[in-house]
Every structure is written in C-alpha cells, then in structure tokens.
Amino acid sequence: MNEALHSIAYKDSQGFITGHFTAMAGPCEVIIETTDQALAQKVTQAVVDEAWRIERTFSRYRSDNIIYQINNANGAVIEVDEETARLLDFADLCFEVSDGMFDITSGVLGKIWQFNGSSNVPSQKAIAKLLPKIGWNQVSWSNPTLQMPAGMALDFGGIGKEYAVDSAATLARAITDCAVLINFGGDIVATAPPISRQQWLIGIEPLALGQNNIPPKVALKHGGVATSGDSKRFLQYKGKVLSHVLNPKTGWPVNDAPASVTVLANNCTQAGMLSTLAMLQGQGAEEFLESQQVEHWIQRR
Question: Of 65, 105, 212, 229, which residue is least crowded by CB atoms under 10 Å?
Fold first, then answer.
C-alpha cells in the first residue's frame, strides 16, 4: 500500500479544521466548522474510510470486487449485493431518462480515447470495433441478478464519486451537527450552512480564455454541487476542443458540448446526473437545465 496515498493531512484555520487526502485518483478534503481536534479527526476518518471503501468496492481497476466479477462473468448470471443493486437501478434510470446517452457500458471506449490534451484521435475502425460492446439495453438486469453478454463491461465512473460523497455526508451527519463540507475532486456536499457565515462559497474553475467575465462562486448552504467539463480532460482535433464526454451511440465526443457544466441540487448524486445529462445534450444543455429548474452555471468556449 502506498502510504502517501493513504494518509490524512490536517490544517486548522479560523474556526475550521480541514482534512486533506487522496481518493478516486484525485485530491479530496473534509472541512469541519469546529476547533475540536478529536471531533474533526473522527469525522474526517469516517469520510476517508467511506471514500476508500467505495473505491475498493466499485473500481474497475481492481480484481477483487463485484465489478471485476461482473465484467469477467463471460455471460453468466451474477447475483449482486444491495448496494450494487441500488447503483445499477440508478444507472438504469439514467439510461432511460437520457434516451440511452448515459450508459455505464460505454467505459470500454476508454481503451482507445485518451483525453490528454493531444491530437491523438482513434481511427473510425477502432471505434466501430467497440460499438457492438456498448449498450445497457443488451444487459439483463432484474434485481438482484444481472446477466451481461461476454466482452462487455460496466464502469461506475460516471456516478461513483457523487455517490461516495453523498454516502460520506450521511456518516458525517450521524457524528456531528457541525457544518461539514466534503469535496471529492470537485464533487461536493455541504451538510449544513456554517454558523460563522451565511453559506459556503465554492469557486467554479474559469476557462483559460483571458476573458474578463469570471464565473461566479456557488453559494451553498446545504446540498450537492457537481461539475462536468473538459478543463483537464480533452483532445485537440481539427481546430476544435473535443470533450471527454462520449456519445455511446457513435463512440465520438458529444457534438457542441459545453466546456463546463456546474449544477446545484439536493444531493451530489442528483447534481452529477444533471450535469452529465446536460453535457450529453450538447447544444441543448442550457435548455435542458432550464427545464429541470435547478441552479446551474454553463461555460462555453
């Protein structure tokens, strides 16, 4: 085990204690409005343990969890546990409401698409070879059993981090009434507004375009915030920036996707679903989020 990746660093500042750690391939933090070091450490440890537990349980990069069993069943029927069933039900809902655009079987496209800022775009032949292996509608899911054609694979990457934040927030609320902000790489939940100020203020990363219009800060009292965007994961192709959000029906990045979508909702899972669905709408992202009547911010290049 890499100790650097499984350690917590604490910082105490102006009535808040922050615990920093790494999970799900990114920086995470827990901010507690308290001066009680023991309480802060108890809350942070609970959040950290939950983040690492969910990462172990649902990462597609491990060979000792339920995702590995499903992806290596070679067409056999797999019975899943209650928690996995809840995520599969949610993925099924996302697939239905998005007309098949939100598809947890599309992760196989990651084998050929590397969004590293380069101009290395896969060939149409390579894309076409993978398309038959994509399609949640090909999977037979009836709680608690799942049967998937051999060669296909599930990836909870599109919903796992938001689910983890919400789950960790539930544990934090059970420990303390103090205001807690949990941030897993930009997916955020606030359990309550701070006593010392009106709300938490969360900055939205601006596009590096040199414009004077700085995106607003999100004022969050409680609930979730999630952002989908291409600020760190994109490709350059024929003078355009290609977003990392892929259309599972074509195997290509979504046409005219916003550079960034941030959504504020009752919880992070809901916010993440809506921000991703908006990205998948491409040019229609603004209209889609207006119809959902949620607070949101969209940046376009």
Answer: 212
